[in-house]
Specification:
With 265 residues, the chain is mainly beta. The chain has 5 helices and 21 strands. Strands 3, 4, 5, 6, 9, 12, 13 and 14 form an 8-stranded mixed beta sheet that branches. Strands 15-17-18-21-20-19 form a 6-stranded antiparallel β-barrel. A 3-stranded antiparallel beta sheet has the order 2-8-7, with no helix packed on it.
């Protein structure tokens, strides 16, 4: 029987097996740190996006967990709360979908912090312990020098995680992994080229997901080896011309996530 993805809406009874991989594998690390974000619109439809968790410290050294997504994902949610698709481990070694509502607006306005020019938003969040532990270190966000130093360019593979059309990889609500090739040149410096293109089909529900490199992604044979995996950016939109999708994703550089984090109160 062919595998079919699932539309995750309510906590189901079926339990997906727990993933197993070395802790250093950023691919599995990013999967564990990526969640579905959604909000019903009252007409039988819902807004769906993706977000990922970053571990950081505030100015006083207090550890905090930050949810990163595309700004438009939150802007298109008119309500005061969104549902975050947490996943909880079970006593039998599996996982179950365990979503919870999280505030995104107060009476005086949005609770998130957004980048002034790019489609990036960051929200400090109280995450379940499993997710707080899975948050990706802030140091793995690419900075201005990363793409230059590593010679990232056309044809290099990067991964993306999301929930295309609201689908998840299984009933436990894990994101779907996609791979695409860098379709832009040049991709640096960031001041001149704040976004780049990735060659793969994009759907509603992919927005806000991380775009990243891990050792299983292919690069040119002569490219310098990265010292560690890195998050290259945030997927923000699909390229369309005349209403037709071109199977190209627009990615905002991770530097703008760093800049947005710096704006947090």
């Amino acid at each position: 029987m062919p595998f079919e993805p699932f539309i995750v809406q309510d906590p189901p009874a079926v339990i997906a097996p727990a993933p197993a991989a070395p802790a250093w594998d950023l691919t599995v690390g990013m999967i564990n740190a990526t969640v579905m974000l959604d909000q019903p619109l009252g007409d039988g439809t819902r807004t769906v996006g993706a977000g990922f968790l970053i571990a950081d410290q505030d100015a006083d050294g207090r550890p905090r967990v930050l949810l990163v997504t595309a700004r438009h994902v939150l802007e298109r949610m008119p309500g005061a709360e969104m549902r975050v698709g947490w996943r909880a481990p079970t006593a039998t070694g599996g996982w179950r979908f365990d979503p919870a509502m999280v505030a995104i607006r107060a009476e005086d306005g949005p609770l998130w912090t957004e980048h002034p020019t790019q489609d990036v938003a960051v929200l400090e969040i109280v995450a379940p312990p499993t997710f707080a532990a899975a948050a990706i270190p802030v140091g793995w966000l690419a900075d201005d020098a990363t793409f230059d130093a590593l010679g990232v360019g056309p044809g290099d593979e990067l991964y993306s995680l999301g929930f295309p059309q609201g689908l998840s990889a299984n009933r436990a609500g894990f994101p779907i992994l996609r791979v695409g090739k860098v379709a832009s040149w040049p991709v640096a410096p960031v001041d001149a080229f704040p976004t780049f293109l990735l060659d793969f089909a994009v759907f509603p529900g992919n927005s806000g997901g991380p775009v990243f490199w891990s050792p299983t992604a292919r690069r040119r044979p002569d490219a310098p080896p990265p010292e560690h995996p890195f998050i290259g950016g945030v997927l923000t939109q699909e390229v369309e011309v005349g209403g037709q999708g071109l199977e190209l994703a627009v990615v905002a550089h991770a530097r703008f996530v760093r800049e947005t984090i710096a704006l947090l109160p």
